[in-house]
Design a protein that fits this description.
alpha/beta, 6 helices, 5 strands
Length: about 150
């Protein structure tokens, strides 16, 4: 998660959301993803989706079995579903969606579909492991960079 936090800080320096997602396998970072506002005409360009796409390309597979998605903010239903469809091992996230909802600014809005990650995971197959609120305090500090 420390690497995801560092990546999120870099993303903020580039004028994007202070968010980052990593795909990790065997304790090695396979891919990373951030939300790039230059691609604002593609609503699917979330950091988690970018990381999953990059990992699939690198591993030359549509499945990411044995991989874990680390992300600084609770993934939305679309991103959570992508992790399920990729047959990932699990998801680890820092800040919760509820942490983001009151932090909209002129530049950034924290739009979400109000379905928690764990609810989406409970409906999907295969069953993914979930660790919520991991390093939450450190991830909450990232919102200050997106103001």
């Amino acid at each position: 998660m420390m690497k995801a936090i560092e990546c999120a800080k870099e993303s903020a320096k580039n004028g994007d959301y202070a968010l980052c997602a990593l795909v990790v396998k065997d304790n090695r970072i396979i891919a990373k993803g951030t939300t790039n506002l230059k691609h604002e005409h593609d609503p699917t360009v979330h950091g988690e989706i970018v990381a999953i796409r990059n990992a699939c390309k690198k591993l030359k597979s549509g499945y990411l079995e044995g991989c874990v998605l680390y992300t600084t903010l609770e993934p939305c239903p679309m991103c959570t579903s992508a992790a399920i469809w990729a047959k990932m091992q699990g998801i680890v996230f820092g800040a919760f969606e509820k942490d983001a909802k009151n932090r909209s600014t002129k530049k950034f809005s924290w739009r979400q579909i109000k379905i928690p990650c764990k609810t989406v995971l409970s409906k999907g197959m295969p069953k993914l492991d979930l660790k919520e609120g991991f390093m939450r305090k450190e991830c909450l500090k990232l919102f200050e960079l997106s103001s």
